[in-house]
Q: What sequence folds into this?
């Protein structure tokens, strides 16, 4: 952010100093967004989390994705990995085709999960950058919703089976 002249170097140094001994697990983009700084570069817009996430995607040369849960096939994407795996690596499956799985991350340099997932799925992995708060929240929501749908489907199958046996 300093190199791209979005924030003042002195402000960045002060933030680093203030947070030196803090052992929280807050994503750096969230930390910067919480400062409510305006960009040092014109047009001096507020450095909100979504804008910072888009900046990161451009900076690292990856695609940016605003996660829209209404456009996600929960049952398909939650088959890609377990919720524990997603939680461990702070990644979220957001799309799957016969050729590739699209995985949202806010940690572009953490890639240890990628090769093993590629081997298990036998699919190409496409990584996209997404808002870290959205990723964390949707991990819980997607997998809970998928479990609920699966449970309801299994109950329906049981009910249909019971009716078929009765007839």
A:
């Amino acid at each position: 952010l300093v190199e791209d002249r979005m924030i003042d170097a002195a402000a960045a140094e002060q933030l680093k100093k203030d947070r030196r001994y803090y052992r929280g697990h807050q994503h750096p983009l969230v930390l910067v967004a919480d400062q409510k700084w305006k960009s040092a570069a014109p047009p001096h817009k507020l450095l909100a989390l979504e804008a910072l996430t888009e900046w990161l995607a451009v900076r690292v040369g990856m695609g940016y994705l605003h996660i829209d849960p209404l456009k996600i096939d929960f049952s398909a994407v939650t088959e890609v990995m377990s919720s524990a795996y997603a939680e461990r690596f702070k990644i979220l499956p957001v799309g799957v085709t016969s050729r590739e799985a699209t995985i949202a991350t806010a940690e572009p340099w953490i890639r240890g999960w990628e090769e093993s997932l590629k081997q298990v799925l036998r699919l190409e992995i496409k990584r996209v950058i997404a808002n870290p708060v959205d990723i964390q929240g949707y991990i819980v929501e997607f997998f809970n919703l998928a479990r609920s749908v699966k449970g309801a489907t299994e109950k329906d199958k049981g009910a249909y089976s019971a009716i078929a046996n009765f007839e």
About this structure: The two ends are 69 Å apart (CA to CA). The longest helix spans residues 132-166.
